[in-house]
């Protein structure tokens, strides 16, 4: 089976984001961008399925600016086989909404016929946690979200999900969409030889129009603000002083 | 105008997140109808009918809804959606699982994890791990929304809405529940607890993590953890507080052996009083703490337990 993995280029998780003074968004000029960490986990899972003989080909897709090529090359260097870049905008600040991303991915699935789609649970920039669920709805497929363990057995997959109360095990029909959670695996680093090899792996470039998808947003950003800052507290000298202050000053004990 | 609100429950009791979501729904305008879907969930429907501001409770009893599977629940909600302008759910793992599916089936863009309502179509939501707050306006005919519980107070319980049975929708039959692995605990639930004590990598081991639990029991607190503590196996996954775990806002949050990475702060920085215990005085957690104690946790925690 083919495995499709959508990978998003996002602000690196170590970067401290700054809200722009005109409140139009977050400053993305000259900041370090990386593959969404959850998507690294999804790529890793696809590679492990291939290594276990359960997948033949791994196709990675990114939807965004031309520079998303770097994210795709990174996935190819990890071990994906080929890439599709959908150039949807020329401005890094125009993010594409999960519904539009899901519609483009649906068109790609109709062409490529993968047996499994592995998506990150959430993108760490907009934190929507939506794309995988929306895609499985559009496909009429089952969804296995927040996966921390995946076992594929014939035409079914048994998936352990991280939920509020602990873990839930479900069985879904294949093909399906899985969204991956933090503890599914630890992604590998790309080795230098693999980074070199990745440069020769195929990468197609498309546009949303090629798939007949309108990416205009349904949500307009009215403004983006700094969250209220907490005021600095005090350093206490001992456990006794701490307990005393929590009782008398803060009134929480 | 009316709001359809998906109740969060375990087939016997209504989760507190539902009452908080009712408060958010009140600001959207219109009647509020709660949907209780589950197996034998009549008792839950009665509890939901008591929430202030609720005009009707729809009760869909079917075993297909007993384990919160997204496909049958989304089919049910989409079947009922015709009468509503807003379809909302708490931003629990269930809400996050089900609502984007509902939205896509209605060709709407889901609005995840809102922290304020500015009008029927305008909402505030945290982005970039809570380092920015976006105000977004939806142009969709039906707004499909999940609500961050930590940002809203629970609605009161003086109501007496009518309860109506609704028929189950056809089950798409795409998935099956196998089992839940839930650890029963007498401690309060993280997202509704008034006090929380969380441990990080500094705890060093699963055994040491028990020191946190002892203090928690003295405080009547829930226990949380950083991702590092969960990844290292010191604490179960459902303890994780943060951008990609649970978002909490208790009256008291005590962070022990947690450095204060932005992803952790995203989940707890709206707590009323924050206490940090860390041996590194430079740890970023001290920048958000109301009370900081620079100390070795293995020395401080037993003293704290004794002092309470
Ligand atoms: C400052 C700001 C400005 C904005 N401006 C606009 C705008 O002008 N136009 C607009 O349409 N929206 C805009 N948005 C809206 C915002 O971009 C969407 O709400 C956003 O994309 C949310 O989705 P997510 O990336 O968090 O998706 P999630 O659903 O959290 O992503 C989950 C997974 O889906 C996959 N995925 C998601 N996106 C992609 C992708 N592009 N390529 C490949 N895989 C992907 C990945 O596997 C990812 O892990 C803006 C948002 C902000 C904060
Ligand atoms: C995609 C993504 C999502 C993430 N989501 C989350 C999330 O939801 N929640 C989350 O928490 N993290 C999340 N993280 C991880 C986050 O970036 C940090 O790595 C994590 O929070 C660190 O955990 P920690 O503070 O326990 O560990 P560390 O950063 O290692 O800090 C340990 C602290 O313990 C102190 N310490 C050690 N020994 C002692 C002692 N004896 N006495 C007192 N203090 C001691 C040290 O001084 C140090 O400050 C995420 C990361 C990524 C990339």
Could you characterize the architecture of this molecule?
The complex is a heterodimer of chains A (253) and B (308). With 253 residues, chain A is α/β, with parallel strands linked by helices. Chain A contains 6 helices and 13 strands. Chain A has helices at 37-51, 68-78, 98-112, 131-139, 192-198, 239-248; strands at 2-6, 9-11, 33-35, 57-64, 82-87, 116-120, 143-153, 156-163, 166-173, 176-180, 203-206, 219-225, 234-236. In chain A, strands 9-8-7-10-6-1-4-5-11 form a 9-stranded mixed sheet, with helices on both faces. Chain A has a two-stranded antiparallel ribbon with strand order 2-3. In chain A, helix 2 packs across helix 5. The longest helix of chain A is centred in the N-terminal third of the chain and has 15 residues, at 37-51. The mean pLDDT of chain A is 95. Chain B is an alpha/beta fold. Helices cover 25% and strands 27% of the residues of chain B. Chain B is built from 8 helices and 16 strands. Chain B has helices at residues 16-26, 42-49, 70-80, 93-105, 206-219, 227-231, 262-265, 297-307, and strands at residues 2-6, 31-38, 56-61, 86-90, 111-114, 116-117, 122-127, 132-138, 143-147, 162-165, 175-182, 195-199, 222-225, 252-256, 273-278, 291-294. A 7-stranded parallel sheet of chain B has the order 5-9-4-1-2-3-10, with helices on both faces. In chain B, helix 3 crosses helix 4. Chain B starts with a strand and ends with a helix. The model of chain B has no long low-confidence stretch (mean pLDDT 96). The chains are: A alpha/beta (253), B alpha/beta (308).
């Amino acid at each position: 089976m083919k495995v499709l993995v959508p990978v998003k280029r996002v602000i690196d998780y170590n970067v401290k984001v700054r809200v722009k003074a005109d409140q139009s968004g977050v400053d993305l000029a000259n900041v370090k961008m990386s593959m969404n960490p959850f998507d690294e986990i999804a790529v890793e899972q696809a590679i492990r399925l291939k290594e276990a003989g359960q997948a033949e080909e791994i196709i990675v897709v990114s939807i965004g600016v031309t520079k998303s090529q770097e994210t795709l090359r990174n996935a190819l260097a990890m071990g994906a086989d080929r890439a599709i870049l959908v150039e949807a905008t020329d401005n890094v600040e125009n993010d594409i909404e999960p519904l539009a991303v899901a519609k483009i991915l649906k068109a790609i699935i109709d062409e490529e016929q993968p047996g499994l789609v592995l998506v990150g649970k959430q993108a760490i920039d907009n934190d929507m946690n939506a794309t995988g669920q929306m895609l499985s709805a559009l496909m009429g497929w089952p969804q296995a979200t927040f996966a921390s363990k995946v076992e594929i057995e014939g035409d079914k997959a048994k998936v352990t999900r991280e939920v509020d109360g602990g873990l839930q095990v479900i069985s879904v029909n294949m093909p399906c969409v899985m969204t991956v959670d933090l503890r599914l695996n630890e992604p590998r680093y790309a080795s230098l030889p693999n980074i070199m090899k990745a440069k020769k792996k195929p990468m197609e470039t498309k546009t949303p129009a090629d798939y007949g998808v309108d990416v205009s947003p349904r949500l307009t950003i009215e403004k983006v603000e700094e969250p209220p800052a907490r005021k600095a507290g005090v350093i206490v000298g001992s456990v006794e002083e701490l307990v005393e202050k929590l009782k008398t000053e803060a009134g929480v004990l | 105008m009316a709001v359809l609100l998906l109740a969060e429950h375990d087939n016997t009791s209504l989760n507190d997140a539902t009452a908080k979501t009712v408060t958010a729904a009140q600001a959207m305008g219109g009647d509020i109808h709660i949907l209780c879907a589950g197996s034998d969930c009549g008792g839950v429907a009665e509890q939901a009918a008591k929430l202030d501001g609720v005009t009707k409770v729809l009760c869909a009893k079917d075993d297909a809804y007993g384990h919160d599977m997204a496909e049958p629940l989304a089919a049910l909600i989409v079947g009922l959606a015709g009468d509503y302008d807003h379809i909302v759910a708490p931003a629990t793992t269930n809400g996050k699982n089900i609502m984007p599916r509902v939205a896509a089936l209605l060709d709407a863009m889901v609005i995840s994890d809102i922290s304020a309502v500015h009008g029927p179509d305008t909402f505030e939501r945290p982005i970039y791990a809570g380092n920015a707050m976006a105000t977004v306006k939806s142009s969709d005919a039906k707004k499909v929304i999940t609500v961050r519980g930590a940002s809203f107070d629970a609605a009161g319980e003086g109501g007496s809405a009518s309860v109506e049975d609704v028929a189950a929708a056809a089950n798409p039959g795409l998935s099956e529940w196998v089992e839940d692995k839930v650890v029963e605990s007498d401690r309060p639930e993280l997202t509704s607890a008034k006090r929380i004590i969380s441990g990080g990598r500094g705890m060093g081991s699963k055994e040491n993590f028990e020191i946190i639990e002892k203090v928690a029991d003295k405080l009547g607190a829930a226990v949380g953890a950083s991702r590092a503590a969960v990844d290292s196996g010191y604490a179960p996954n459902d303890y994780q507080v943060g951008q990609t775990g649970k978002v909490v806002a208790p009256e008291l949050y005590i962070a022990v052996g947690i450095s204060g990475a932005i992803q952790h702060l995203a989940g707890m920085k709206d707590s009323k009083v924050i206490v940090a215990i860390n041996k590194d005085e430079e740890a970023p957690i001290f920048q958000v703490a109301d009370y900081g104690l620079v100390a070795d946790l293995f020395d401080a925690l037993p003293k704290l337990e004794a002092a309470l």
